[in-house]
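Session log. Operator J.P. requested a structure for one protein chain; no other inputs attached. Running the standard single-chain path with token output.
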Amino acid sequence: MTCRPPCDNVLLCAMKHLQQNSGNVHELSAKERVTYSRLDPSLLPQHIAIIMDGNGRWANRRHLPRFVGHRSGVQTVRGVVETAARIGLSYLTLYAFSAENWKRRPRTEVDFLMQLLRQYLKQEVPRLNRNNVRLTYIGRIHELPQAVQERLKWAEEATAGNTGMVLTLALNYGARAEIVDAFRSIITAAKNNGGIDHLDINEDIVSRHLYGAMPDPDLVIRTSGELRVSNFLLWQIAYAEIYVTGKLWPDFEGVDLLEAIADYQRRDRRYGGLSASSNRHRERASRNGAEHDHSFSSALAAQK
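Structure written below.
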């Protein structure tokens, strides 16, 4: 379990981080700049979470071994991370390895993924530093192989001084396990602070004991066309917008990330309330009703 670093107010920390992360839009490709020109930079989502899906199917459709799909998926991660950093995104979370992968994938594939992760970290840290990206993780990291844990720690420390985008890799991660771990942490903290008799559990307390220290995602992107969230950030995505693309992860590019953001900016986020247009309609109806009542009262007065 990854614990949250000290932060009295996650929103204030996020706002401070946003101010520090200005991006490098001039480094976008020509194709990306065309799509970016349609965006409102002031309305970028603060946090995007991506369910990276389709590596195996991408390889199968080309009659290639699955490991080739995973290697191609790593190349996609590199491009998407750079695009996100360049436009000034504050938080990007990638679902890299689920807790279920241990049980449902062949041992040889799991071993290959662990080796690929170590290689990725070693190769990408210089690139992350150039893009001012800070790397962190969520999940039951302590259950990963020791060599992987050591490489993770090295990469996190090597990027700790960066002040730009926070890239979070979800490794050996499952949202149900995260919630279970959160309640275990709450109970342990209560026992160490006077006992559980006076424990008052609310949403804020649960949120503070979840993995990581980041605001809830505004936008969840799912590749491969699957219409499910796959046990990913179940608590945090309660009000997130969801964008599904039929593209398999190795085919996903930076421009696709920008297209997802463009779609996000066309939506009306209501958080359980009425839309802005509905509120304006109600206000007009209320004003019209008041004017009608005033006119009717005036007519009655004139007849007296």
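Operator note: The beta strands are 47-51, 91-98, 134-138, 166-173, 219-222, 241-244.
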